[in-house]
Task: structure prediction
Amino acid sequence: MQDESIRDDRQALTGDLAAMTSPLQAYLETLHHTYQPLREGAMADYIPELAKANPDWFGICIVTVDGRVYQVGNYDQEFTMQSVSKPFVYGLALEDHGRDYVLSKVGVEPSGDAFNAIVLDEQSNRPYNPMVNAGAIAIAGLIKGENPAERMNRLLELFRRYTGRTMRLDVAVFLSERTTGDRNRAIAYLMRNFGMLAGNLEETLDLYFQQCSLLVTCHDLAVIAATLANDGLNPITHERAVDADYVQDMLSVMYTCGMYDFSGEWAYRVGLPAKSGVGGGILAVAPRKLGIGVFSPLLDTRGNSVRGVKVCTEISRHFGLHAFNTCTDDTRLREAIFGRL
Result:
């Protein structure tokens, strides 16, 4: 047993040294140095607790599907997931009910409106997609459990599988969201009026506010993204986080709807399934290759991290990660990870 522990320690040390000497690590450090002075954007202030973030916080992390980790800056600074949580709760609802049933309750069409718009698809009698607040609230109402505590524990266990660590709630942010969440209550009551939402509305809203208030780091985001890139298998712990059959559903709605009303331009310029949150996090997925996590709380007018958008754009362009890139192979990425072959 001791020999195994020593071998594991040596493997971890070897991996750390490989990351430290990798051209990819040097590239991330250059990116961080380039965009750290950027002061564009503003903190989210409609949730009072979020306005307390430090505008200088800035972290970047990449995790490959074989478990290599490259990170720089404030990659271990905790912040709340906010809308980054939406694709993963959607995945849990798919596991609970199946694709057809969930699709009958929440659509997959981009709305073209702000994430908190009080707009519903009245023709199909559904929220437009799971990435806007209306759709995410409806998805929260689909999570199985005998009571609110059991449903919340299922979310904590879900994100434990994705991140490989025990998750915890930022109670101050949760209470702040609950206190100031009248717009989300309006959305929920409107959906109930149209028969789109059943059950106890306050319990559903509390679960939604709680999923948004879970604490993560930039490192966590990259591990989560790499888990999706790895068909739902966590590349660090090797534990399955989500049924592989539903990964394509999650990535599809992330690609078309994940970046608020910037999703179309993101798909055009970056070309990766992604999800952002007003806490300052962005995760992006390069299927079968790697996951990207970026954290910076300065947001643009659409609610996306300013530094995060720029970093993801640069990484995608530099390594040819765009989903529809047909001009380059993986040579540059392989050389960045392993050195020149």
User: Anything to note?
Assistant: The radius of gyration is 19 Å. The first strand starts at residue 59 and ends at 64. Residues 32 and 165 are 26 Å apart (CA to CA). The chain is about 50% helix and 10% strand.
